[in-house]
Amino acid sequence: MTEMEETGRIMNQQILEDWISALDALNRQIKQWVVDREQRGSLTVKEVPVTKNEEYIGSYQVKMLVLLSKNNHVDVCPVGRFALGAIGRVDLTNYKKSFPFLYSSRKGWVSLDSRKPLTETLFFELLDQLLVD
Q1: Are 35 and 44 in contact (CB under 8 A)?
Q2: Three-state SS for 105?
Q3: Residue 44 and residue 61: Cα distance in Å, rounded?
Q4: Is there a contact between 88 and 22 (Cβ–Cβ < 8 Å)?
Q5: In what order do the strands lie in the sheet with 108-111?
Q6: Lower CB density within 10 Å: C or N end of the chain?
Q7: What is the pLDDT at residue 56?
Q8: Measured on CA atoms in the order 36, 37, 39, 43, is the torsion positive or negative?
Q9: Which residue range is the domain that position 79 belongs to?
Q10: Angle in degrees, 0-180, between the axes of helices 3-33 and 120-132, rounded to the nearest 10
Q11: How many domains does the chain have?
C-alpha cells in the first residue's frame, strides 16, 4: 500500500468513526426524550443492528432505533454517511412517510424539510404524525 493509499484509509476510518459516534449520540438523545412515554407504556424502544455498505468507508454496523406504539412503529433509520450538503442522513420513518435529518458538525441534526434543528419538540411533533399515519 502506498503512503497516499494508507493516508486515505486512515482518513476514511476517522470519517466512519465520527459518523458512528454521531449516530450513537442521536440514539442516546432520542432514548432520553422518550423515557416518559416508555414508563407510561405508550412506547417501546428497541435497538436493532443494521449493516451498511458505502463507497470509501466499506461495510459497517450501526444501531437503528425502532419505536413501537400499540398501533404502529417508527424507525430512526441511518441512511448513509455521505449525504449531499451534509455529513450524513437519518430518516424518521413509518415507511409510508419519512422525515429526513441531515447531520452537520456545526449545526448537529437538522430537519431536511424545515431546516430546523432537531429538538425534543420537533421530534415529538414528527413522531406523533408518523405514529397515527
Answers
A1: no
A2: coil
A3: 22
A4: yes
A5: 44-54, 58-68, 73-80, 88-93, 98-104, 108-111
A6: N
A7: 79
A8: negative
A9: 3-132
A10: 80
A11: 1
Residues 6+ apart with CB under 8 A from 125: none
CA distance 98 to 89: 12
Contact 46/66 with Cβ under 8 angstroms? yes
Beta strand segments in 29-93, E: 44-54, 58-68, 73-80, 88-93
Q: Nine-digit cell at 2?
A: 502506498
17, 34, 64, 66, 78 from 48: Cα distances, Å = 19, 17, 5, 7, 11
Q: Are 43 and 52 in contact (CB under 8 A)?
A: no
The C-alpha angle 66, 16, 111, rounded to 5 degrees, equals 50
The amino acid sitting at 51 is T
Q: What are phi and psi of 44, to 5 degrees?
A: -120, 140
Q: pLDDT means per 10 residues in the chain (133 residues)?
A: 73 84 96 95 95 88 95 94 82 96 90 92 96 85
At a CB cut-off of 8 Å and minimum separation 6, what does 55 contact?
82
* Nearest of 62, 86, 87 to residue 76 by alpha carbon: 62
